[in-house]
Every structure is written in C-alpha cells, then in structure tokens.
Write the structure tokens for this entry.
Amino acid sequence: MIGFIGAGSIGGAVITGLVKNGFDAEEIIVKGGKSNRTKDLQEHLGFKMVQKIKQMENADPIFIGVGANALDSVLSELNSISKDKLVIAFTGSATVAKLRQALPDAKVAHAIPNTPVKVGAGFTGITYSEKFTVDEKKKVASIMGYTGQLVEVPETQLGILGTVAGCSPAFLDLFIEALSDAGVKHGLDRKLAYDAAIGMAIGASKLALQSDLNPSALKDEVTSPGGSTIKGVAALEEYGFRNAVIKAVDAAEGE
C-alpha cells in the first residue's frame, strides 16, 4: 500500500498517472484536504480515501503533495507514524534537511514532478537522504516509473531542474497557443491549428528524445539554405525568442 497526503495539482496528477498507467488503485490510500477535490478524484479513480494521517500507518512509501503553507502541520502529524517509512515530498520548500529534522525516524526524499506525470509522460527530479538504500531507491523509481522519467540529482540542482521541467509546460502551452493563432491568421480553422501545433510538439519532442543528434543539429536538418524555416528561425532570433525563454527561467527562479 502506498500513501498520498494531498491530491491537488501535483499530488492529483501523480495519482492519476499511476492509476491510468496500470498501478492498482486499490493499493493507493489518499488523505485529502477540506475541499471535495480528493473525493471527486476518488470517485473517478477508485483509490481508498481517509480523513486522518494516522489512518495511513500501513502505507509505505508516503508521498506528500500539499502546499507550503500546510507542510509543517502535515509533517508534525506524520511524525507519529513515520518510523522507518519512506517519505517523499513534492512540496517545493520541503528540503531534505527540513524533512529530516521533522521526521528523524523516516527515510526522506524531496522530489519535483511536472504536470505531464498525469499522462505517464512526466519528468521528475528527486534527491534522496543518505538513509535510502539502493533497493529503496529502486522501489520509489518503480512506482514513479508509471508516471514517466525519474532522475536522481543533487538537491542543489533540484530547483532549476524543477523550473526547466516543471514551469516549461506552461511556456510550451503559450507557444502552442501563439503558433495556433498564427495558423488562424493565415486561414486555418482553430481546431486544425491547435491539432497541428500540438502534433508538432509531440512529434518534435519524440524525435529529439530518440535521436542521437542534439536539438541544434535537428534544427539544422530542417533549415535548408534560403528556405522558409531558416527565415522563420531568423525572425525568432530577431524578436528575442531565445533570450525570452532564458529570461522566463530566470524569472521563475526568482532572479
């Protein structure tokens, strides 16, 4: 049995990704908040729902998906049942040091998933405390594998990895919307414009993932001399596309 405390945007996305991609819903127990969000998700997915953290004593590992304002109270309540458990927190402020101090008898980790975990195509960075064994890391990886990729990194890199993988779906959505607007401007109906832009994003991403070439080389394959693509790339450069992306990451990082 695995447990989740919180089924909001990220917790709910991970739970959905697990169940939709084959993880047994009967092996998931979720403690929700005051809203009906967890109840609505439970009716849709079929996991077990409880009202108190102490009712999750048989769950291991336990994933924490609450907001920063609720983290301290959750950790305080979880401490009484956390002995020797694996506890993985998705909350941005849940550093390994903070988790270790609040749950001294648990084995803790800090992870930052992105929203595509909901469809099994997520990218999650994770930092484990030194107590985690190789087999315990494999256990967490086998669970999160239902939601996409899981990559272990030093905690100093977890924040920027979370920004690049976690904030960027919104950046890509904005690009898709703009590309669709351009298609409509030049005569496509809205649905076809969206389908074309989304299909391109999926296909180009899959090609980049499976190719031995880096993105720069893949771009060069499409930009024939004097062609329409290189003219479009030049326009993106003229209007600061590359710099805008870097500045967006800087802003998300708080710079």
User: Anything to note?
Assistant: Strands lie at 2-5, 28-31, 48-50, 62-64, 86-89, 107-112, 122-128, 148-152.
